[in-house]
Write a structure and sequence with these properties.
335 residues, alpha/beta, Rossmann fold, 7-stranded mixed sheet, 10 helices, 29% helix, ATP-binding
């Protein structure tokens, strides 16, 4: 997993232009390695989905990428910046190289088209040389791969359960065998049993097909179990990144601690749950210094005036993690 497949460098995303612009994502640096699951966690409004839509150029107006690079490393050929692709190149890039599974499957699937039509349309657009028979065969194979019987090909979305609709979305995302799959809170509307089934199946498919995953959620407990690495976002910035096991056992940022303390442990002694006081910051009027300091139980003098930089902390495992917090001086900045 040392080979990068996607590099996000100093990415900035705004809503609006000029002095009235809202800076939703600021100076984000992330690397997704080939074959890994990178979790992206944070409260609603922290910039997770905006980051995903920005790096894939799916932002609706007035959203705009105001700076940075998104370097994609194909299996063959030279790396290139996704933000510099022409419309024709971008059309070929989406679904074939990078696909997205959106949060609400019922809103993402067309309610007046059968499942078969929506699966085969992807193939018709990207592989026009395929015959109708071959497209239908591929669609049936993909449904089977995600645990849906092929006899549901002629069903409409409203005739499927929530879990089945989400499986269809995963199948649609994987039908062209992309290298990167971005999952934007795909299990939020599902019960915990169905969540586990779909996530377990996703990991099995990743091991079989070898794609990489950016998994976005506000539920850190899911990421601890299913991710290789986890990045924590707050106020549009990455505030901590580490291996999943490392973050769970020894998180450095107080915000990460707050997220970890807000869900019950599956094993071990009972512990009292503790939420994070206050609310996420208003992006139109961000607090000075560290954006988390008004809610932070460990804030001290520098926090209110100076923005901490993301870097490698002065700890024994500092080479494999980053944090942006004045409690942990960094040896090397990232970006």
């Amino acid at each position: 997993m040392n080979e990068p497949v996607l590099e996000i460098k100093n990415l900035n995303v705004d809503y609006g232009l000029g002095d009235q612009a809202v800076h939703a994502v600021r100076d984000v640096n992330l690397t997704l390695h080939r074959g890994e699951v990178l979790g992206l966690a944070g409260e609603s409004g922290s910039g997770k989905s905006t980051l995903a839509y920005g790096l894939t150029r799916l932002l609706a107006p007035p959203g705009v990428v105001s700076g940075g690079e998104v370097i994609y490393h194909p299996e063959q050929g030279e790396p290139y910046d996704v933000l510099g692709l022409t419309d024709r190149q971008l059309q070929a890039f989406r679904w074939a190289e990078t696909a997205i599974v959106f949060q609400g499957a019922m809103n993402s699937l067309n309610p007046v088209h059968k499942i078969s039509t929506q699966l085969t349309d992807v193939l018709a657009a990207h592989e026009p040389q395929m015959s109708s028979h071959s497209r239908n065969a591929r669609a049936r194979e993909m449904l089977k791969l995600v645990g849906i019987s092929a006899d549901r090909m002629d069903a409409y979305p409203h005739q499927l359960s929530g879990g089945m609709r989400q499986r269809v979305m995963i199948g649609m995302a994987l039908i062209l065998q992309p290298q990167v799959v971005i999952m934007d809170e795909p299990t939020t509307a599902l019960d915990v049993v169905m969540q586990r089934q779909i996530l377990g199946q996703l990991i099995e498919l990743r091991e079989r097909l070898g794609f990489s995953v950016i998994f976005i959620t506000h539920d850190l407990s899911l990421l601890v179990e299913f991710s290789n690495r986890i990045a924590i976002m707050y106020g549009g910035r990455i505030v901590e990144e580490a291996q999943a096991a490392t973050l769970y056992k020894d998180s450095l940022h107080p915000y990460s601690n707050g997220l970890l303390s807000s869900f019950p442990a599956l094993r071990g002694p009972r512990r009292e749950l503790a939420g994070i006081p206050g609310s996420p910051p208003d992006l139109k009027g961000m607090p000075s210094g560290c954006s988390f300091h008004p809610r932070c139980p460990k804030a001290f003098d520098p926090c209110a005036d100076n923005i901490p930089v993301l870097g490698r902390p002065d700890t024994p495992d500092g080479a494999t993690r980053t944090v942006a917090c004045w409690l942990h001086p960094v040896q090397q900045t990232v970006g």
